[in-house]
Amino acid sequence: MSDAGTPSVARGPLAAIADLRARSDRQPQKRSWPIPGADELFRSLYTGFEVGSGTSLAVCSAVNGEGKSTMCTGLAVAIAQDLPDRRVVIVETDLWRPVLAKDFGLPPAPGLSDCLLDRQPLATTLRATELDNLSLLVAGSMVPSPQRLLRSARMADVMHTLRNTYDVVIVDTAAVMVHSEVALIARMVEEVVFVVRTGVTPARELDAALGRLREANVKGIVLNDVRSSVPRVLRRLARL
Amino acid sequence: MIEKVLEAFFRHAVLIVLPIIVIPFVVVAWVFSTPPQYEAQAGVWVERPAYLNYSGDELTRYLPPAKVQLDRLSELMRTRSFTTAVVKGTQLAEYLQTPGGEAFLDQTFARDFDLFQNGDHLLVIRFRSEDSATALTLVNAIVEQFRDRASEDRRAQAQLAISFYQGRLADADGTLTTARSELAKYLDANPSVAAALAKNGLDYARLDPGFADLQRRVEAALRNDDNARGALSSAQFDYASSVQGDALGFRVIDAAGVSASPSRQLKKALVYPLAALIGGIALSAGLLMLFALSDHSVRSLADLAPDSVILGVMPSMRPTSLARRAGPDVTRRGVGFIAGATLPLKPTERKAS
C-alpha cells in the first residue's frame, strides 16, 4: 500500500516498483563495472540506436549461448546509467532457460509466465534493481508449454503495456533456431538486434535464423565475444 | 584459410602438438626399454650356377649373382622346411616342439634376420639375438643349410641334364645304326651302284637318287649323334665342375663372427624415433586440418554476409579475476553487477557476509 492508501499495483507498474524500493531494507550502494571497459562497449553499442521514448528492441540469436542475456543486461544497464530520465525494463521471454532471476539473486516467480497465465498482474511481476530507472521482468514460474503463452494475445497486451509504460523495453528472447515463437516476439518490437558469438554460431544457422526473422525489423548484427587465439605478433605478420 | 588454420592451431594447440611429443617419446622409451642385442654376421661370395641355362630366363639374365642368390635365400627363409632345418641343432630347436614355438620362430626370423647384397657377388647374412652364442650358431646354420640346398639343387639339375642328353645320344645312335644298315642293304641290292662307288668314289655314286637319299640320312644321323655326344660331354663337364667348384660358387669369405658387446640396432635407435616423429607430425597436421575444415562457425566479420549491417563488435569480456571463482555466466553477472546482479564471493567475503 502506498501513502495515499491506494494499492501501488492499481496505480501502475512504476508505482509498484517505487514501493518495492522504498520497502526494501537494502542500502543503496554505489557499484562500479567489474569488467573494465565494458560500460564503454555497451555505450558505443546503444549509441547506434535511437533511444527515445517508446523504444523497444529484442535481442535475438541463432542458437543458445551466444550472449543474448549479457547483451540485454549490458545495454539496459548502460542506457539506465547514462540516461537517468529514461525508464528501462528487461523482459525475459526465454521461458525455457531463464537466467535473470538467478543472476540478480531474486526468486524465480512471479514473472512473465505468471503474468501471461493471469496468476499475477503485470505490476507485481516487475522487479526493481539497484538502478532506479531499470526494472526486470523475469521469466517466472516454469510452465509446461511456454510456446502457447508466448503466442497468446496476452503476450501482445503485456508488450503493449510495457512499451507504453517504459521508455526503453529490451526483450531477451530464446534462440531463433530452437524456438519459432521468437519470430513472433521479434515482430512485437520495433527493432531486433542479432547477436552472433564468434566460434559458436554456425554460418549456416545464422543465415537460417535471419531468414526466420525476415518479417521483423532486424537492425543489424552484433559480433560478440570476438577474440583470437593467434598471438598478436603472428597476426600482424600474417596480416590477419 | 590461413587465418582459420592459425586459429585452429592456437585454439587446440595442446591437442595438436601432443602427438608430435608423445609418439616419439613412446617410441624412444620402447626402443631403450628393449635389451641390446649381439649381432652375428657372415659374408658369402656367390657365383651364378654354371649349369643353369639362363639364356631363356630374361628376368634373371642380367641380375648379379648376389641378387639371384639373395632372392633364393629370402624365399627359402619363408619356408617352414628350411627354417626348421636351420633351427635343428641350435639353441632354438626346443621351440620346434610346440605349435606356439613355430610362430615364435617365424617372428624371430622376421625380426632379427637380415640378408642383403653388398656388390654383385657378396651376400651378407646377419642375425641378432640377446645371446651371442645363439646369434653365431644361427648365422652358421643358415650358411650351412643354404650351401647344402644349393649343392643339392645343382647336383639334381646337372644329373637331370646328363640323363636327358644320354637319352638323346641313345636315340641318335639308334638312328645312325638304322641309316647305315639301310644304306648297306641298298648297296647289296644294287651292285652297279656299289661298283660305281668303289670305282669312281662317292660323288659319282650320288648320281643314283636312292643312294644319295640314304647317304644324306646317314650323314644327318651322324651329325645328330655328334651333337648329342657333345652336349652330354658338356653336361657331364658342367656337373663335374659344379660339384668340384662348390667352393667357387658359394664361398664363405667372412666367417660368421659376433659383436663383442651387445648394441642397439641403428634402425631402432635412430630410424624408429625419426619415423615416429614424422608420424606424429603427420597426425598433428591431419588434426589441424580436421579442426580447421570442420569449423563452420562465424569467427570474424569476414565470415558474415557482405550486406550484413554490423552494429558493433564486442570483444571477449571474461573478467579473469572473477573467472577463476565463477561459472560460465560470470560475464553476464559482471555486466549486470551495477544493477544488482550477484557475483560469486571470495571465501573471505563470504565469511564476512
Poorly predicted runs of 5 or more residues of chain A: 1-10, 24-29
Q: Low-confidence spans of chain B: pLDDT under 50, at least 5 residues?
A: 347-353
Strand order, main sheet of chain B: write it out: 2-3-1-4
Q: How large is the radius of gyration of chain A?
A: 19 Å
Helix percent of chain A reads 40-55%
What is the residue-averaged pLDDT of chain B? 82
Order of helices and strands of chain B: HHEHHHEEHHHHHEHEHHH
In this structure, how is the largest beta sheet of chain B organized? 4 strands, antiparallel
CA-CA gap between termini of chain B: 52 Å
What is the strand tally of chain A? 7
Structure classification of chain B: alpha+beta
Per DSSP, the total helix count of chain A is 12
Please describe the topology of this protein.
The complex is a heterodimer of chains A (240) and B (353).
Chain A: H1 8-11, H2 13-23, H3 38-47, E1 55-61, H4 68-82, E2 88-92, H5 100-103, H6 112-116, H7 122-125, E3 126-128, E4 134-137, H8 146-151, H9 153-165, E5 168-175, H10 181-188, E6 191-197, H11 203-212, E7 218-226, H12 232-238
Parallel strand pairs in A: 1-5, 1-6, 2-4, 2-5, 6-7
Antiparallel strand pairs in A: 3-4
Chain B: H1 2-11, H2 13-33, E1 38-46, H3 65-77, H4 80-87, H5 99-112, E2 113-117, E3 122-129, H6 132-189, H7 191-200, H8 202-205, H9 209-244, H10 246-249, E4 250-258, H11 266-294, E5 310-315, H12 320-323, H13 330-335, H14 347-352
Antiparallel strand pairs in B: 1-3, 1-4, 2-3
Helix pairs in contact in B: 1-11, 2-11, 4-6, 6-9
